[in-house]
Amino acid sequence: MRGLTLDTFNSIMDKTTIKPRLKRELRFVASTAAMPAEEWKDTELFAIKDRNGNKGVLVVEIASGLYVLPYEFKRTNISSVTGRAEAVICDLCKTWQSGSNAGSISFIGAKKATSNVAYLCCADLACSKHVRTQTPAAKVSRAQLRENLDNDQRVERLRTRLEKIMKYVEAEPVEY
User: Fold this and answer.
1) What gap in Å lies between CA 149 and CA 16, rounded to an integer?
2) CA 102 – CA 73 distance, rounded (Å)
3) How far apart are CA 34 and CA 3, in angstroms?
């Protein structure tokens, strides 16, 4: 992904049809703009959240373009048997996440009426780092799932999954 600055992000947001209230609530962190170019190059998706972390936009760059998808995030349900949050395997990056670092994401305002599907996901939405084994959760996941794919294969799987989701919710690319 090309690097995002506050000005670039605001320009992108002006070109989207996201509700004005959500646009106002988004928190573009100053440290985001200071990320090195190498980190941006290795980023397929980037979450910009509201203050509470329950809503935001997912900025996704894949071969077919740049997409901005508004989303709602919910923590995973608590098991009625154990009283603990249940672990999940992220539908985006296939990383095993403990219940405290897992949730579900649903894309709001998508064109397709049936797109109110919730995807299990990592709470930090750092899937680009997880597939490259740059996080402790990714290292634990590789051991838990006994996965034999290398990082390049996991990155390709993430990109393929993101392309399928973009087609499913009928998202339109944004120029920037």
Assistant:
1) 36
2) 10
3) 9
Those residues with Cβ within 8 angstroms of residue 22's Cβ, 6 or more apart along the chain or in another chain: 50, 55, 56, 57, 70
Q: How far apart are CA 24 and CA 60, in angstroms?
A: 20
DSSP 27-59: ---HHHHTS-HHHHHT-SEEEEEBTTSSEEEEE
DSSP H/E element including 157? helix 151-168
Q: What is the pLDDT of residue 111?
A: 59
Compute the C-alpha angle 73/79/81, nearest 5°: 175
* Lateral strand order in the sheet of 55-62: 45-49, 55-62, 65-75, 102-107, 118-122
* pLDDT tens readout for residues 103-146: 899 988 655 555 567 899 999 999 999 999 999 989 888 888 88
Q: Which residues contact 135 (CB under 8 A, 6 or more apart)?
A: 126, 129
Give the DSSP letter of residue 146: T
Give the separation between CA 83 and CA 3, rounded to whole angstroms.
Answer: 42
Residue at 27: amino acid letter: R
Q: What's the CA gap between 132 and 128, in Å, rounded?
A: 7
